[in-house]
Amino acid sequence: YYETYGEVFPENDFDIAIIADRDYDRIPAGLQIQQFITHEQSWSISGNPDVFKYAIKRIAFDSGDEMIVAPDINSSELVGIIMIFNEVEAGVVLAKRKQAKI
Hints:
By secondary structure, this protein is mainly beta. It contains two helices and six strands.
């Protein structure tokens, strides 16, 4: 989070879940969130681009409950990151604001 946004992630304000092995059934709307994160997303590189890349988005909801990119952490109801290791999805981390209505 810090690498992308230049601020410390306020982990006490969020519940964090990890989706491993594409187990989206555990997290309601997990697959839709994953698709939102990767849609038109350019991958960020950390180290060797053939080894590790990631996509991260701060997410809010508009008046029609559609996901939109949040402009800052205070407006975010979710934060999601998808990590790719050796061209294979290595994990998805979803953070939901504790008082979010979702």
